[in-house]
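Continuing the series of single-chain predictions for the mutant panel. This is the parent chain; the variants come on the following pages.
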Amino acid sequence: MPRTALLLSAVLLAAVLSPTASQAADDPVPVPVDRFEGEVPFASQPAEGIFAWGGDSDDPPALQLTARADAPEGEKVLTGDYDISGYGGFTHDFAADLPAHDWSAHQGVRLWWDGRGTGRKIPFEIKDGGANGEASELWTTSFTDDFTGWKQVELPFTGFAYRTDYQPVGGIDHVLGLTRMWGYALTLPVGVRGRFAMDDVELYGRADQALRANVTTDAAVYPVKEGGAATVSVTVVTTGSAPLDEPVTVAYETTGGTAEPGKDYTPVTGTLTFPAGTASGTTRTLRVHTLRDKSPEPAETVPLKLTVTGAKAPAETPQVVLDAHGLPYLDSRLPVRKRVADLVSRMSLEEKAGQMTQAERGAVGEGADVATYELGSLLSGGGSTPTPNTPAAWARMTDGFQLRARATRWQIPLIYGVDAVHGHNNLAGATIMPHNIGIGATRDPRLAEQTAAVTASEVRATGVPWDFAPCLCVSRDERWGRSYESFGEDPALVRSMETVVQGLQGSADGRQLKDDDKVLATAKHFVGDGGTEYGSSTTGTYTIDQGVTKVTRQQLEAVHLEPFRTAVDRGVGTVMPSYSSLDVLGDGRGPVKMHARADMINGVLKGRMGFDGFVISDWNALDQLSGDYPSQVRTAVDAGVDMMMVPYGYKDFTAALTGEVNAGRVSRQRIDDAVSRILTQKFRLGLFEHPYAQTRNASKIGGAAHRAVARRAAAESQVLLKNSGGVLPLRTSQKVYVAGSNADDLGNQTGGWTVTWQGASGAHTRGTTILDAMRKDGDVTYSKDASAPMAGHDVGVVVVGETPYAEGVGDVGNGHSLELSAADRAAVDKVCAAMKCAVLIVSGRPQLIGDRLGAIDALVASWLPGTEGDGVADVLYGKRPFTGRLPVTWPRSETQLPINVGDTAYDPQFPYGWGLTTLAKAPTGGATALRALGVAAGAAERAGADRAGRALVDRARLIVQQKAGPHLTAAIAKPFADADHLSLTGRYGAAVQKLAEAYRAA
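Parent structure:
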């Protein structure tokens, strides 16, 4: 007999013999979900089971079934120990290959909890609809551990709310149907070490119609121009879509609000009736007429009170809003500065504080707090997406939040932001570009601009006008988990790639920001995040990210500040400070968190550089400053941070900020400056005229034209480090043996910041793997672990490297290294011992390969090429030439790190700027040719002929690379790398002289 039937029989017998006191006479018998007697194993999907989860390796609780004499039911209870720094808990999922469960006959779910009197809330989720427990809607409630000993906690289904964050894709209707339930999950407290015990999860009670039927309205806010009418749709829905058993009545009346009845609108009152037998989803409408007066006014509200009988009322009172009109700031003909000044002069302190606040979409639920707290901005953190994760759903989501802003007095639109760092990477199916490290390898500023333009188009088409990109960090240590977010280790290279700012924003004067294919850009992370010292991080288990950058003033200016000066000149709209600390040697201050460095934000960025945009903090960066919360707020705001990213702490921030201003500790002038900067960008973006999603380009998202740009970028990013015997390009007539962990893994190929924050291995978006692309061009045999027979193949291609990570999670020493995995090393060894081989390294940073380099015929740095594996195949098969060059130095060993172009001691495996080409044969002539090229390059430099100068340096580089071959020494590598830096700074004659020095040493 199945487990569920056995449990149900036992419960029925128990109910007959001894009915519980809490069970009403006509209630159904409670149905067990978990007895914790061992009937449900510790397992995960697709099998039924209980499993723990958490934010990192330490967060999942340790679960066990423990025999307890005081067990409320049976002999055992579920117990667990936890010490959670991020998030953690456990889940019971039903078997994915069996039908979902039907809970619709019951009032709710209950459980026994062994209270510890902590006062902590315990979130409890249930899983509704979709394909299985990991692809279902999440509905949440909570109970408070404010008691001691065993207590039965009842959680009625009417108390569950739809989660707006971390929803998976698929099967979503935003209705708690209860007819397709897949299990539950429980989240444990964070920041305290503890132990829990629970028992006997079961369904209880009978669901009457008032619990099964809900009245909803089609919106919470109904903006209308003065003199117009608002049409409100009122709908009744039931769980399971059953017809109504009893009538439902909805009495309505306009009452309260800031609009005046009889003057601003015609009052309405009445009753809507849904008789017994009415089908679920039936809608009635009512209209509210507004009246016209010609005087300029702010927006005014007309709440529509709904009194529901026989069903659950809407969670919110809908509001009709008479739009603001006739005020100068609404006049698009006026200069932006005048519009800003007019609006700021009208705003209260609380409204200004709201504009300086950015919350996470998941924190505001359906969005009521947008109006309540006058919020100026929302964001999607990595992986925070609507459900389903489609362009249309993104547009609906952002429009829904913008609608909430219409209920505020001045109707200031939200500015919504995302981390679209290599395409619209939160959106499944978007075009994913190579990460910046690969873009740097292309040495192609025009292509960099085109990739950014594609990103801007796809982001804006989903209703998002703001991108937290580009990262202008100068990566000086490849142990950093954010290395791939950098264009390279040379500030000159980073500066050359800042054409991406124009790709995102358009012209430097901001005139194109209002266009439906442009977004506001963010230069990050100001300043020095790429120079943090290994071992200096104090954030969790990070080793280098968010650490301390120790530099002289000269190094700070020359290396880390230069890219931001260029970004300001290019008109970048926002700047984000770094989590890291800056220690300027000799200034006597020691390490200071960047969010607290007024000398750098106010003094250098806004003062000396003349930055006129606004400064947005990083995620919860306030919490890393010293002092109590009000002093943290004061420090950051006075340092020059204009908007605070406080994802779940927006209420505390607005309260603290207004408190500091009212106490005189933060000046009102500083607040007005911050708000003016923010509003200026909102006006430039055209949000006051067009607050809602402009979706004209939505059909282009992930389309052929955009993917063609990404394919070209992937091809140009490939760096050919070694090519003995001309193994590459491959010929279509060859039989190719393909192996390695990254040959057929789209997730590894796209890396971190792809669909989710950390990214993930496997297929989680649309694209072409390197293997799939190679199969289009040649005769390919694939064996991931190189276990398939190798006889009869002409050449092997082994695609190895890293799995996805982001930020400090990817720091070397935090569970990561620069070594290939044992499986990857084995695959390389097997294939390269059996045949000529090419090894492709798909990674966010160099991998240590020197001990195997002699056995490898061709070596390619593929970086993280994005969704278009066709671009990689294009260069492998010679459809495009290899032209990429190293954007960072490739070390021989980890002990060399950090190693960078310009270092006094410089003896890498491959120098900065190295990259063989299959475009053409190297010029002949040797030293004589180099002398002639040097003369011509000097003349091009003096004439300002940059294109000609770079071409001459490239010819000289080919001569040196051909002579040097794979036998690189420090005497060759150092002048070779220096030459690439000189070329990027326009010193073409000196670059050729350095290459001549390298040639003589070869």
